[in-house]
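Risk register update: the risk of archive-format incompatibility is retired. Evidence:
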Amino acid sequence: MTTRSASTPSPSSTTASPGAAPVATPAQGAAPRRFGGLGPVGLVLSGGISVQFGAALAVTLMPRAGALGVVTLRLFAAAVVLLLVCRPRLRGHSRTDWGTVIVFGVTMAAMNGLFYQAADRIPLGAAVTLEVLGPLALSVLASRRAVNAVWAALALAGVFLLGGGGFTDLDPVGVAFALGAGAMWATYIVFSARTGRRFPQADGLAMAMAVAALVFLPLGIAESGGKLLDPTTVALGSAVAVLSSVLPYTLELLALRRMPASTFAVLMSLEPALAAAAGFLILGQSLSLTQSLAIALVIAASMGAVRTQVGRGKAKPELELPPA
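Archived output:
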């Protein structure tokens, strides 16, 4: 995922200061200048397309294995692939390193579980639109500029439109799951950046994926049981794992080593549009004009909020969160 550095980052570069939002700075020697800014952007967009079309495929698999079963197959297959490819070194890591990996893994398990529960109940485009509020909130909280109130209001207007003025058109349980997944997505961004700084290549990701698979395995067995051993189900679940976990997480962690987390969040703001396209092309889920406008508002709000943060970050290397 990330290129191996010839030198080891200093402790100050791998530990976020108290009250500061960690920003993924390139490891020393990790990102050759020839990649410029286009390389990371292409990585993030490719990962976004992959994850949303993988999610659409997962929805078609849910009748066979259930939402929890699909997540179990996705995480387990992704963990096996990453562990075999990366062969991460288990020794020589500090307690903080292991703590970061464990929290990252638990976060991925929770994010996937909550999102697939949401996608099982509401359209894919709506689920991702609500989910993206997590990164948006992270962006707004990381900046104290008044203009972010405008972006927050724009996002809330989009959510209001998406819910038909009260979410009467959407399953409220699905909405709650999607919002929970958004909170986990914001946490994922933070710990993906930290993991990328602490471990070479995809070692940290491979170990975190194994943690996520182990955490979720009992839930998948409880819901799906022997269905998880059906050859067709395993094959489809493995395809979902490659599209929704192996490729996007690898590309995103690589991108986070080459760009600030704030810029990464701008690009991730496009996820609702990609999800709506995947839902339409694969699942036949069409959106009304009002729902399409709602998604556009949330995307605009997310991009605006993070771009404001990026501009502020040019003058200040770290983006501070207000004290809890």
